[in-house]
Amino acid sequence: MTMQTITQGASGAQAFHQSALDAGRFLVQRCEECSRHVYYPRESCPHCGSAALRWVSPSGLGTVHAVTTVRRKPAEGGDLNVSLIDLDEGVRLMSRVDNVAPGAAHIGQRVKARVQVKDGRGLVLFDALEGGVE
Amino acid sequence: MSSGLQALRGSAVIAGVATFGCGETPGFTDMELLARSARAAVADAGLAMRDIDGLCTASASAAMWALPVVEYLGLNPRYIDGTMLGGSSFIAHLLPAMHAIRSGQCSAVLVCYGSAQRSAAFGRREIVAARRFLDPQPYEHPYEPMLPVSAYALAASRHMHVYGTTREQLADVAVAARAWARLNPDAFMRDPLTREDVLAARMVSDPLTVRDCCLVTDGGGAYVLVSAERARDLPKKPVYVLGNATAVWNRQISSMADLTVTAASQSGREAFAMAGLAPKDIDVVQLYDAFTINTLLFLEDLGFCPKGEAGRFVADGAIAPGGTLPVNTNGGGLSCVHPGMYGIFALIEAVRQLRGECGERQVAGARTALAHGNGGMLSSQATAVLGTQEAL
User: Fold this and answer.
1) Which pLDDT band holds residue B1 (cuts at 50, 70, 90)?
2) CA dihedral B175, B330, B366, B269 (to 10 degrees)
């Protein structure tokens, strides 16, 4: 993990996080009081209440914790993977394992984060480290 | 558990209950379904609407729902609780209302709900879009989960992975609910349902098929809470509130620390402590079964079987008619009624069982009941332990 000082500026945590994503950067928070990572971004630490949250770049590596396939008609976009991913830093987020067929993502799969920027808006997706297709 | 809460044990009685329009009731609004249920519950309690001086209600659409309910029913309540925790709300409303009655703030509390979810002209798709706009979840909605079912599907995937729970065992929850519904003339779905039917049904969000999902119906429900002293002069067999507790650990499924353990483990423990009872003491159980995985999680978290064992527990037929633990005797949200929020209907069925009003589905000699409500994405959990006079 890269420890670096990232200055938030005047906005709230949500807008700052999104603006970083829009620029292709995935950031999470780390509490300077209790040393735990925090995601989704907040104004205070949900573990200890401290306001001393520092932005850090996670390694991007994680493990699929839970999976489902949302069944949709092709006209509605077709089947879609929705997963919960545990980052190695110890935080969980909802995302999609994007480089395998929707039903092929599985619990325990190692994945790596990637920021997709579409129409100027960034979104964190994950790619399976093994068994993925380009 | 503070002694103050134990002192409230049995201090309040559910004196009246009613449902109206459960199933398909085109032509009625949410408020009309609520009003018909409310009037019938007040009459069931042997009271008149002018006797009602406390109100608890919630709506999934209207943020200030208590206001139009006061206006519509012509109430002048000195106690108002509009707490909205999702489907568990109407069970969570119990304990604060008991405090209000005990303190003398009010004497007769009406708890009421109505939803025309099935027949409403404003479509479900529009409602989902409106709620996403008004109450955004920026860390989940961009991934297009089909909420709420995908959240429960994610929890099911964990339970299957960690405990070896099978797709068939989930189906057995729906089959048991249907078997009970077949004994309830008021249940919405009463056709026979087999494990194979559930497995062959349309997959919605893996591993959950449409038969793992609750119904979408219309319906209203209401109950009236009074002091135990007041209930002595009222006509119906009193059902005492022995324990009640509510717990919330998260809102989003992605913020749930362990997808196989819900806050029901806290609300259940605290409700049982207030009641001075344990799971083994409960004769009939009503669990908020929005999805089949709910029943498994709540059986475990409330202590009716060890963590991880609920799949095997239901596969042995334990919760079906004739089993060792009668669960969701009206047919539950899966087969009886589910108008957006089900919690009040679970509580009403528990009361009817304790009164002995349940006909073919009656659990003989039931003296204690547990009603458990769930809200959001396994988010809010409220547990009520009820009993007859013999259980006091």
Assistant:
1) low
2) 80
